[in-house]
Each structure stands twice: as structure tokens, then as C-alpha cells.
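Internal tracking record. Fields below are filled automatically when a chain is submitted to the structure queue. Please do not edit lines marked as system-generated. If the sequence contains nonstandard residues, flag them in the REMARKS field before resubmitting.
Queue: standard
Priority: normal
Entity type: single polypeptide chain
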Amino acid sequence: MIPVRDDLRALDGYHSAQVDVEVRLNTNESPFPPPAGFADAVASEISRIDWNRYPDRAALALRTDIADMHGVDPAQVFVANGSNEVLQTVLLAYAGPGRTVATFEPTYQMHAQIARVTGATVVEGERGLDFTLDPAEVDRVLTVHRPHVVFLTSPNNPTGLVEPRERVEQLLASAPGLVVVDEAYAQFSDWSALDMVDESRPLVVTRTFSKTWSMAGARLGYLVGPTWLVAELDKVVLPYHLDAVKQLSGRIALRFADDMNERVALLVSERDRISAGLRALPIDVFDSGANFVLFRPTDVAGGTVWQQLVDRSILVRDCSGWPRLENCLRVTIGTPDENDRFLTAIADILKA
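SYSTEM-GENERATED OUTPUT FOLLOWS
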């Protein structure tokens, strides 16, 4: 057996428990399939693909459509196989051996995971007990470690917290390197850092089609950033990395923006309903600007609640084993019927 790289031996892969249940509320996907007409449109367009030819390496048509949606230049857009490959490409270009990447924990686990896989050193800033980020802690991390890349996730995963605009401004004013704002759940929030992107700032904003566009099965993500940064990513991305079907599907999805906006409004309403229902129980509930809610039962162990939900064929995410998230669970917002079932079940569990 050939040993893996020394710096990878202590790492584990990313895992999310998958259990055969009737109600799956653990992976932050959209609970709805794509809008009516999407699948037929994709099928029709696929029939005209030149299968014997490589796809457009630059994915220019898709980048142009995304740029039009955000009012930017296509040269400011980079697309890849899910936002995780977007993050990996950025870190391959701007992190790696001898460089430092900063995160503020708890936050999305893959930021640190991908950074370590590229060979970078990861440093972790600490959030408060309410998961907010103290400006003094930001200054400490930037001053002591001088990171080449710093991540800020808004809304944050797994906490749901929406970072204030002034926190991004603080990073841009003080960070010595690249600032990456991960906005996988931005459509559910009340603000975005996209309007802060310009040629003079080392800022990129990443997005995904997995959530509001109901395309988790397609794995498509993108970033918006300065043109000079996007141009550098071409040095590390694999040739023809984005296949023709994915490029086509992404363009077709953008035709259904009105449907997406309606779903966002419904999910935000359901999120608020779930938060209110949980607050009526012996549970600490954290404010969320995403399509999920993080909560902590106060009288029963989180792992016990998780198992009793599974016993009722409902799966949520058990975060209780993660650092700084003792006893915490996270529920993805599902359909109204799924949310009813979840609220009824957890009320029965805690009242018992």
C-alpha cells in the first residue's frame, strides 16, 4: 500500500449521514423540483448537442447569462462544478504550500478542508457564544497571521447568521490578501456583497445553483470577482472542466428567475414559521438568513432528539459533535407538509 501525503493522513472526507427516511431535512437542498418546463427544455436542447465535440472551454454563454443577471461583465464570472470546485480553484491559485488561509469558526467545513488539501496552513478565528464575529477578533487574526485568503460565509453555514456589511468592509480595509465571501444562501438573506465587487478590490463572491435553483443534482456554481482574478483561475482549472449539459442546464435555469423568487419567498416564510414553532419549545433558536435553522434543545441531548426524529422517519443534521456546536441540530426548510411533520414530531419528543 502506498501512503497518502503526510499532511493528509489526519484528514477525513466530508460526510453527511444519509438515512432512509420519509422526510429529509439535513442537506440544505431545495425541497422542490425544478419548475414545470425546465426538464422538457433541457431535454430538447440536449438533443442538439454535438456529443463528439468538447464543450466550450470558457463556458462563455453561461458566464454571459450569469453576468447579465448580476449586471457585471462576463469576464468577472467564473463557473465550475458546484461552488466547492469554485472554492478549490481559488485556493489552488491563491493559497497552497507556504500560504495561510483564515476562517472564523464555526463555519462551512469545506473552506478549511479544501485549503488543507491544497497544502495551505489554516488558522481559525473564534466567534462569540451567539456566533457573531467581534471586530477585534477579525483584527487579531489579520494582524497576527496575515492570511493570503480569508473566508467569510454569509449567511453562515451552519449557524444561519447574516454577516453585517461593515464586517466585509473591515476585511477589505485590513486583509493583506484575497477576501472570499461565500453566499451559497444569499437569496434567502436581506443583503449581498455582490455590489461591493470591483476591479480595485481583492474580493470575490461565490454562489451556487444547488439551493434556490433546485439544481443540487447538477453541481453548478460560480463566482463574481475582478477580471484580473478570474483570468488567473484559468491557470489551475482543468481543461473542459464544465460539460456541455451542465452549461446548457444552467442557462435554461436562469429563464425561470420568477419561479425561483416565488420559492425563495415561500421558504423564507416557512423558515420564520419553523423558528417561531421551535421558540415555543424548550429550545435555543439562532436567527437565520438561510434556508435552514440551527437550534439547541435545552432539556434533552441533541443526539437523543436527532435519533427520536429518525425513529419518526425525519432526518435533520446532527451538529452536536462539531467544535463549538455542542448539543446543536440543524433543520433544512422543507415543504409546508414536511415542516408540519417536523414541528409536530419535535414538540411530541420534547413534551414527552
